[in-house]
Design brief:
This protein is mainly beta. It has a single domain, classed as Bacteriophage SPP1 head-tail adaptor protein (Thrombin, subunit H), CATH 2.40.10.270. It contains one helix and six strands; from the N terminus they run αββββββ.
Length: about 120
């Protein structure tokens, strides 16, 4: 049965292996939140480890603006590259080299995903 992909399954596996081996030199710890009632009408987040994967982080120049203390402030952001099909919570966090980042966006993925890309910012 012919594939809808322009690559064969074997080619895709080979490309993913190469990207993981050569392109992901670091390690990322994926965190997911568990919310508990704080007794005052709000919630408190506790962060649990969802997994540890190979990763690479790169700074993005175009930080978004955010209201901080009634002033618009540029907030720097980064792109984290992870192995293809890594499950990342949209409300999650990622720890790389002892720095905790908040997930801003899990970038859309094509059917031929070679690696997963996630836009993050330093957690406040």
């Amino acid at each position: 049965m012919p594939s809808d992909l322009p690559l064969t399954a074997g080619e895709l596996v080979s490309m993913r292996d190469t990207a993981d081996t050569l392109g992901l030199p670091g390690t990322a710890v994926l965190l997911t939140p568990t919310f508990t009632n704080d007794g005052q009408g709000g919630q408190t987040a506790s962060w649990g480890t969802a997994g540890t994967v190979a990763a690479r982080i790169a700074f993005m120049k175009d930080g978004a603006e955010r209201n901080v203390g009634d002033r618009l402030t540029k907030v720097a952001s980064w792109i984290v590259t992870l192995p293809a099909s890594t499950s990342v919570a949209q409300t999650g966090r990622i720890v790389i080299d002892s720095t905790t980042y908040e997930v801003v966006e899990v970038l859309p993925r094509p059917a031929e995903e070679i690696s997963r890309r996630v836009r993050v910012r330093i957690a406040s």
